[in-house]
Specification:
Blueprint (H helix, E strand, L loop, with lengths): L1 E5 L4 E10 L2 H6 L11 E5 L4 E3 L7 E6 L5 E8 L4 E3 L5 E6 L2 H5 L7 E5 L13
Parallel strand pairs: 2-3
Antiparallel strand pairs: 1-2, 1-9, 3-8, 4-7, 5-6, 5-8
Length: 127
């Protein structure tokens, strides 16, 4: 689990975000969830596109580059949609409304803080 903060806006996007950093975790994604509670979400690393086939609820999508700068935001994406951002390195899936409530926009910089030691953080490349 990680805490995701929008450093540009000084807001928190999630305080219990799961990390999908293996092939198996990326395949399952949020399909096992009936809903996303406020503060929860899924950070898919690496990833540049997602689908919402078979999803039971809409989600916000925040696309990030390797420096964890927001490249694109999609609000309340319903089931049975495809979404991509070819310049993205990872995608943050959040409860619908989270991006708007936090004021998150393209260009914002996000930080990720590990909350549990058993979840290794993907390395950010050196600039």
């Amino acid at each position: 689990m990680v805490l995701v903060r929008n450093q540009t806006r000084n807001t928190v996007l999630g305080d219990a975000v799961e990390v999908a950093d293996t092939s198996e975790k990326r395949r399952v994604g949020l399909l096992k969830h009936a809903r996303l509670d406020p503060g929860s979400g899924l950070w898919i690393v690496p990833c540049e596109s997602v689908h919402t086939f078979f999803m039971k609820f809409p989600i916000d999508l925040v696309y990030l580059d390797k420096q964890r700068k927001v490249r694109k935001v999609r609000h309340a994406v319903p089931a049975w949609r495809l979404s991509a951002c070819l310049s993205a390195h990872s995608i943050l899936e959040l409860p619908a409304g989270t991006a708007e409530e936090s004021g998150t926009l393209p260009g914002d910089e996000l930080t990720f803080q590990k909350l549990m030691p058993e979840t290794p953080m993907p390395e950010a490349p050196n600039a």
